[in-house]
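Worked Example 4.2. Consider the chain below.
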Amino acid sequence: MYETTRGIVLHVMKYSDKNSIAHIYSDTRGRMALLLPQGATRAARMRNAMFLPLSVVEFEARIIAGRELYSFKDCRCMVPLAGIYADPAKSAIAMFISELLSRCIQESERNKPLFDYITTSVQLLDSLDRGIANFHICFLYHLGPFLGIQPDTATYRYGYWFDMENGVFTPSHPMHTHVLAPREAAVMKLLSRMTFANLHLFRFNRTQRNKILDIALNYYQLHNSTIGAMKSPDVLRQIFE
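Applying the procedure from the previous section yields the following structure tokens:
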């Protein structure tokens, strides 16, 4: 049985001389692995061009009970992303987001709100013309609620510490080391006001932005052991002033 679905390309890895495996986050089945034929033909090159990081594609997957690797046909690009792939900064952000999602999303079950958030974010990144340097920070913060790790900003008060283990602000130092001092905790509260519409209004220099990225990644890694050490953040740390 073939099932038509949409998906966001997370990453592609070599499987054999004839095939690669494309890891997709789909709107109907969560994470999926597709068998992606390789070759030197024009059709193969065109197909591979549709499987760049964060590409949004529609395809017909062959669903067989008990299988975890799906074959597919009739793949179509749903959202052209010329703006991302023509801009080195946007491309670096796309690589970061795809690596992060590849590591933290493992569930093979439908989550439409998460799928919609990612696809909307991808389209916004493609069309964005200002505030690009803050996009990955904004994406990270607002991804948290979909993964169940959103900081409880209602507990914030001036001078409070941030308890990274429990995601709450506290008046005193928690009894563990996973904590942000009041000055850094205030930045976490500040980020809660950042949206894709106003991210250009937040002015950070390179040092500040990199510190915020490190804090956000530490928070994610603390709550999701599958993330581990990532390669793409090193590029982001160098690319933005």
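The radius of gyration is 19 Å. The longest helix spans residues 206-223. Compare this with Example 4.1 before moving on.
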